[in-house]
């Protein structure tokens, strides 16, 4: 077999063509044109004849010269089958048939074309996926807040911040500026705002049953705040700002309890805790809210009403208000008898209860002369409960101590009634108390044993609730 080197005859061109089986069949090549090779399935020994003279440098030829060339024609490699992206949400029928599903709803194209039943798996539940998303980054400790939390934060700044200190909105502006550095403070603010928003937007019945939309969010933030605050209180305070953040959180949690349908005794516990933490330094923004400062705040709120009363000659209650006070005193008289009957069994605890009862009686009698002064006397009873020993405080706030629960209920109902008479322009900052008092009355009444004794003791609170706490449209 003769091959061509570098001395290719001038004018000769070697055809370079690669054939596949399909190409060969299409061109009808015969065995005389192509010799079959037995190696690598290649076709070789294609002969080309020329009768012309071929001349070239270093090459001699005649007219009878036969030129033979070897052309190797290789079979094309098979084109791989084009794959497709696996369908993760395709129908069951396409999965069984192992074909790509168009995922078209309600029926995919394949099932529609063939006439098969198209059935898709159930879509994943987004709420079930959200915990998985949070767990993908377990090392992240940054708190996650929602758009609803932004709404709560805004509501806190404009409406839900605690009414104390009096006329000190700037104090809570400063607290908001601190919140970015203390998670327990942020959650306390959001919890109070959620509770307050739920309180002012829900009906009395839905509020009492905690079915309002913001109640779950409020409790969630409250639990987080208390947990984080307890962790913080286990270490010494590192700066005045941290001290203010701690006190602000406790005060906010206390007023959130005042917005909860079952927060009556919890509110007292949080106020008591405020007095423990209230040893604020001279640079604290809450230095005026010590125990004495709270009473001074009450005097500021009632000063204008007191001046109006003094300007009148011969101040008198209206007949309905007079009957309200007389009914209150009669109810306290019945409660006194029951407390004295059992006083020997728990002398210390009952003694604290008697001090509160006597303070309520004095405030009720003062109401006939000056509701503003009566309101001041009533608020001073907070000091008795704050200074009580741990055993006495636990006794009067025990949910199973029904007489004490009724006594505390009398205190909050009277505070609400005197507040309406005495707070004047500040009344709007305490407007939520009517619905809260109704909820607390309902909660205590529901837990009382169904006996004649407790029916007599709760008679006046129920009458007061029907007349002054339940709005006309909900009766």
TrEMBL record:
SUPFAM superfamilies per UniProt? Zn2/Cys6 DNA-binding domain
Q: Which CDD domains match?
A: GAL4 (cd00067)
Q: Which domain of life is it from?
A: Eukaryota
A single GO molecular-function term is: DNA-binding transcription factor activity, RNA polymerase II-specific
Keywords assigned by UniProt, alphabetized? Nucleus
Specify whether Transcription is a keyword of the entry: no
Protein name as it appears in the record:
Zn(2)-C6 fungal-type domain-containing protein
Q: Which organism is it from?
A: Neurospora hispaniola
């Amino acid at each position: 077999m003769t091959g061509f080197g570098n001395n290719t005859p001038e004018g000769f061109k070697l055809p370079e063509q690669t054939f596949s089986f399909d190409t060969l069949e299409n061109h009808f090549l015969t065995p005389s044109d192509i010799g079959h090779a037995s190696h690598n399935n290649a076709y070789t020994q294609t002969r080309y004849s020329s009768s012309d003279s071929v001349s070239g440098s270093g090459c001699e030829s005649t007219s009878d010269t036969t030129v033979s060339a070897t052309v190797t024609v290789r079979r094309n490699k098979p084109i791989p089958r084009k794959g497709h992206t696996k369908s993760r949400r395709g129908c069951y029928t396409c999965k069984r048939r192992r074909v790509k599903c168009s995922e078209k709803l309600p029926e995919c194209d394949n099932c529609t074309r063939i006439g098969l039943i198209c059935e898709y798996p159930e879509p994943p539940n987004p709420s079930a996926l959200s915990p998985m998303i949070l767990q993908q980054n377990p090392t992240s400790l940054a708190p996650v807040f929602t758009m609803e939390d932004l709404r709560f934060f805004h509501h806190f700044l404009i409406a839900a911040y605690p009414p104390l200190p009096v006329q000190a909105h700037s104090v809570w502006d400063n607290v908001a500026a601190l919140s970015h550095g203390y998670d327990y403070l942020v959650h306390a603010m959001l919890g109070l705002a959620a509770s307050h928003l739920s309180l002012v937007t829900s009906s009395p019945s839905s509020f009492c049953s905690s079915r309002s939309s913001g109640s779950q969010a409020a409790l969630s933030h409250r639990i987080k705040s208390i947990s984080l605050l307890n962790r913080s209180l286990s270490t010494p305070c590192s700066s005045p700002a941290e001290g203010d953040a701690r006190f602000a959180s406790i005060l906010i949690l206390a007023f959130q309890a005042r917005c909860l349908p079952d927060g009556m005794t919890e509110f007292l516990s949080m106020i008591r805790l405020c007095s423990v933490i209230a040893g604020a330094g001279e640079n604290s923004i809450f230095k005026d809210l010590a125990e004495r400062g709270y009473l001074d705040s009450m005097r500021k709120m009632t000063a204008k009403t007191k001046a109006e009363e003094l300007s009148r000659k011969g101040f008198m209650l209206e007949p309905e208000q007079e009957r309200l006070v007389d009914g209150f005193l009669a109810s306290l008289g019945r409660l006194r008898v029951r407390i004295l009957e059992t006083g020997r069994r728990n002398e210390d605890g009952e003694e604290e209860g008697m001090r509160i009862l006597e303070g309520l009686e004095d405030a009720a009698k003062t109401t006939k002369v000056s509701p503003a002064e009566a309101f001041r006397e009533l608020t001073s009873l907070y000091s008795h409960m704050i200074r009580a020993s741990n055993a006495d405080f636990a006794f009067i706030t025990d949910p199973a101590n029904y007489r004490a629960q009724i006594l505390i209920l009398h205190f909050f109902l009277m505070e609400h009634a005197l507040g309406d008479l005495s707070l004047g322009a500040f009344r709007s900052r305490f407007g939520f108390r009517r619905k809260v008092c109704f909820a607390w009355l309902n909660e205590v009444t529901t837990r009382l044993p169904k006996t004649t004794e407790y029916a007599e003791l709760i008679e006046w609170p129920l009458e007061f609730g029907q007349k002054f706490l339940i709005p006309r449209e909900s009766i």
